[in-house]
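Morning. Coffee machine broken again, so started the prediction first thing and wrote up yesterday's gels while waiting. Chain of 146 residues, entered below exactly as on the submission form.
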Amino acid sequence: MSYLEVYWNGSREDNFTTGSREGKASANDAGYQRARQEAQVADAPGPDMVPLKLFYSEQRRDNFSTATAVGERDALAAGYRFVRIEGYVWPAPQPAAKGLVPLRLYWHEGRGDNFLTTCKEDEQAAKDAGYRLVRVEAFTRPVNHL
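Came back before lunch.
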């Protein structure tokens, strides 16, 4: 298992959620600051798991992670390009995997920013900042928000 981490770039007003070594290095190279560990993601696919895919829009300068077919279609239709798989998550709650939490996608129209979270406090902060809930992207194991 790896940790899905959230990075923030204040000059871009962009959140970047990544679970891969490459993503974390890319975030640091692009001037993002690590905000927190968000959740756990599997490094390899397990039973009933799906990939959490990272897309990037050069025009919006936005990173967008999605685990749904709808999210992937939305990303491609908006001009995002596929970058890599960030880890593996479950598309629905799993009876055999206790304690899973939803990974929710939020969108901020003015910033052109996608944001993933599992944390109620971060959801409220996103709503207070003008983000709106788009959908549940997947289910994963939580971590303490450090």
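Helices lie at 21-29, 69-77, 120-128. Going to sketch it on the whiteboard this afternoon.
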